What does this fold into?
Amino acid sequence: MRYLPKSPAEREEMIAAIGAKSIDDLFSSIPETYRLKKPLNLPGPLSETEVIQYFQERAAENSTGYTSFLGAGVYNHLRSVVTDVVLQRGEFLTSYTPYQAEISQGTLQAIFEFQTLMCQLTGQEVANASMWDGSTATTEAVLMAERLTGKGRVLVARSVHPEYREVLRTYAKNSGLHIEEIGFTPDGTLDTRALQNALKQDVCAVVVQSPNFFGAIETLAPLADAAHASGALLVVAITEAVSLGVVSPPVEADIVAMEAQSFGLAPSYGGPYAGVIASREKFVRQMPGRLTGQTTDSAGHRGFVLTLATREQHIRREKATSNICTNQALCALAATVHLTLLGKEGLREMAQHNLSKAHYTLAELEKIPGVKRTFKAPFFNEFTVEFPRSVKIVNAYLLKEKFVGPFVLGSAYPDLTKHALVCVTETTSRAEIDRFVAAVKRALEQPL
Amino acid sequence: MAYPTQYRYTKEHEWIDAKNDSATIGITDYAQHELGDVVFVEVPAAGSKLTAGKTFGSVESVKAVSDIYAPVSGEVTEPNPALTNTPDLINTDPHGAGWLIKIKLSSPAEVNSLMDAAAYEAYIEAKQKEASA
Amino acid sequence: MNEHIKKATRHTNQNEGLIFEKSSPGKRAFDLPPLDVPSTDPEKSLGTHHRREGVEGFPEVSEIEVLRHFTRLSTWNFAIDLGMYPLGSCTMKYNPRVNEYVARLAGIATEHPLQPQELSQGCLKIMRLLEKCILEITGMDVVTLQPAAGAQGELTGLLLIRAHHEKHGNPRKKVLIPDSAHGTNPATAVIAGYDVENIKSNAEGQVDLAKLREQVTEDVAALMLTNPSTLGIFEQQIPEIAEILHAKGALLYMDGANMNALTGITRPGDLGVDVMHLNLHKTFSTPHGGGGPGAGPVAMKKILEPYLPTPVLVEREGGRLALDFQRKESIGRVKAFSGNFGVLVRALAYILAYGPGVRQATEDAVLNANYIRKNLEGVYDLPYTRPSMHEVVFSDAAQKRHGVSTMDIAKRLIDYGFHPYTTAFPLIVPGALMIEPTESESKEECDLFIDAMKSIAREAQTTPDVVKTAPHTTRVRRLDEVGAARKPILRWKPAKRSEAAD
It folds into this structure.
């Protein structure tokens, strides 16, 4: 087998050197009854060509050739081919967690740069080396707030991504956290009056997302003030990180939980992505996940090491800040390479393209009779519109025209049955936008 | 390093220097040696209550965290302010400048049930023999 | 010093500062195509309060600088592509390149997890086939591919166990964990809302059945077992352990981190395990990438099926695959979307390449570990003498007499051209050296490793200082971890700003 570097003769030699008669001797500690007598019933073995063929056939059964207006937490963005060139370097791809710092300086410095970029983006003082994704990062941020305040009630905006809220609920069930949801106003942002009513001294965190699931940008200062007045922390989740190229960063937040998928990570049917937690320096000892710090070696040279490891599972065990071990290092590296390629101007420009294309699309859609913008709040690259008929029906028509239509908000918000969440990024051409708008118009003119 | 004879000691390697109804508490030279270079200390604020036998803070090195157990019950009057910026005092002067907290004792008699210097030295000697066996 | 070291030598490599230190306004590495719609004024559309002029401090560099920067950094790393990584329980095996190729195919990498299921049949088929393969390998009935990593798999497993107990009227209070366990086990148990009770291993490094009988009560939800244990030793009495637990209604969870010793040889499901996780980035060859991503699928017996995290992959009429979100008794979601699909693709590619012949990989892994053990017995102290499987644990007791510890030996191994083994774990072996070569190492590489370890043992006796101050040939020497922890510097800051702050 091409992955095994031993010839039959070498195997024989090694077995003899051990003093065994055959390879089976080496498994004698497994009771006879439990040793398999037949090979496993698995497909294969396939040659390299056949492996590729299998996946090409599967690829052909997916969505190639469709233009997408779907966001809802995962975004199509341009990525340079240079990113993969770096990711594919064996020294990055096939290296381990940098516990042995002297031979992992490449990984460690790249993580340090990642931590820095995340701080610059979010306006926070420290950022970790990655969490599994935005949904688990948000949950971990809430658990962090619980540890910091010692309190158990959490107020979460309904406009936070539905799947993020589901994950939080799963984790909260067993940690004694009590989750309550706060609704949104007609302009699409958090209902601050409802928040004020719900805030008491027993709240550890107020959780909002900005831009939120409807695409609306939240005004954070009053939310932070309200939270702090009750001794709670403000946790801000971000699913579309490119927004930070043109939207002001959440400096009022105590903890930011961000999904970095938009920075050079392919959608890949749900993962792997990269979550980030960024926060204030005074909270760093309660921050989960790995942290890389700058230091010097015995000769005074600058170097980098994993630090503050005593928070983590391999030392603290049951008292750890989290159970996370493997994180998303290679994904964080992808984001780092992507962001250094984009640079300050590239990110600003990319954000500007998103902003412009989304606003153009809305303007064109609003020309269709019956199509209305739902929320007044400013938006980045996603917005909510109301159709005069069910979004599912419109999407079924769009599918035939080779469009992946907008997210059906009714599937997660029963009070928004005819509303669609439309996402437009820099990857969608004007021609496709115009074709999409024309198709929506036709869809709404179809006999019922 | 000699173990001050006027102190009392616990099996978890804390020392206590009691005078009437107030005391100073720290960790022993043995403990700091086991831990290695101390990087961070977590001690409770003034006013916090201590219960004998329960943890009240922790001492962190690069590779380990050690919980600190209250040798007696009482109320914290002062945590050592120097430990924020110079936690290494615990390594260099564990029985003196590296003290952790000053407390007001709720039952001064509790101190008498703790080991004296001779007993503690015998205890750690036995531990060291066990480790190298 | 290096004349007798055959595998590695000093080599000029490039210095490189932080990318921010190369930044200069006006440089760009990536251009976008021109904007083809009217440009929206951010001031007007977002309002002054919400708009941002650009990210302050963000680097501005050219394409070549970016490529050189990261290429130079990469040359400072050790990697599997360069040589053996004998880290115990990490299973640092070859990461096949075809896996990278297929994961990047258009139609695979490009798919949105929320797109219509009729446009995702290819993705769902991949997941379905991987599920079937995992069930065949583990001997279980049902599997979820959602958990993002081993630790998340452990949590999912414990939440499934909790749901099962809750259904039977009593969630129970504690989880038993052997003192040899990986740190994620107790950390996870706490997150699942359980107290941790340690169970001591016996003199042979196995679960002490007598102690187990005492400790298993109706307050115990489960035992978390790693098999082979972190000592690399097969837990002989799993069926008996399962019986003791089941008699009191408790369940047996297996940490599958060490599946590389079992695949194709035996199946945890057949042994009595109720639920387990796998680490796809270990046994199933998906790359470690400097610390992740991974994936931690959880396979279980039918009794736990009702509680599976949503969505569940199901087959509908006509063989169409679908994601089922209507699961009344589900524990919920542990992660957004369906799992680390890109990692799942790589794992399936690995399994397809081997087919039923995957047993050979396991045999070679166990052969390599035992070959190394045989050659180093007598050179390093072997605290547990039961047969080793895919990994072997020595201790530094012999070298400690000269003041040399496992950490020092590990650092000296770097000079010999290897990545260190796992030091100081498992905790039940003081001064542990945990060595797992995997099947990807040739006899030549194993022999070089053995030679290196023997040489270092000699050095520990004759010139211990050389070992205690190693490594000598790396870009940086031992780094000041104490300083890094006392005064953490966790990001770069522009010089001007920090001067102003002073």
Summary: The two ends of chain A are 60 Å apart (CA to CA). The first strand of chain A starts at residue 67 and ends at 68. Residues 81-338 of chain A form a domain with the Aspartate Aminotransferase; domain 2 fold (CATH 3.40.640.10).
